[in-house]
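INSTRUCTION: Work out how this chain folds

Token vocabulary: learned, describes local backbone geometry

RECORD BEGINS BELOW THIS LINE
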Amino acid sequence: MDIWSKEKRSEVMSKIRGKNTKPEMILRSQLFMKGFRFRIHKKDLPGKPDIVLPKYKTVIFVHGCFWHYHKDCREGRIPSTNSKFWQEKLSKNIDRDEKYIKELQQLGWKVIVIWECEIEKNIEDTLEKLIVNIKNDNE
């Protein structure tokens, strides 16, 4: 059972950001310090990617482990209350993510997904791997 009323839960959930999240801001800051220049939340691309690197024809999605159901993470789990709702909600999120990735790839974009936990646990290693991945096909 939820610890809050339906109204309070709705209020709390409405405050969760969809863009400019803390992990996203951290990653953008690190990329900028490494000399990368990018655009954010390009509305003309499928899924409005969090970070767009036009020079490298690469987009980056920074996924929250809960909202995008990161199965390899402690945060990527179905809540025990209202499980059916959350299973359906998170499944739709996964399907939508896959759709956007395919559409971007068909348009010739390299798509990279970075998980929230990767940024929180070890930003240095994550950033190093990310930079290698970005530059891999572009040098």
The helical segments are 6-14, 22-33, 83-106, 116-121, 123-136. The chain has a mean pLDDT of 87. The first strand starts at residue 51 and ends at 53. Residues 20-136 form a domain with the Endonuclease; Chain A fold (CATH 3.40.960.10).
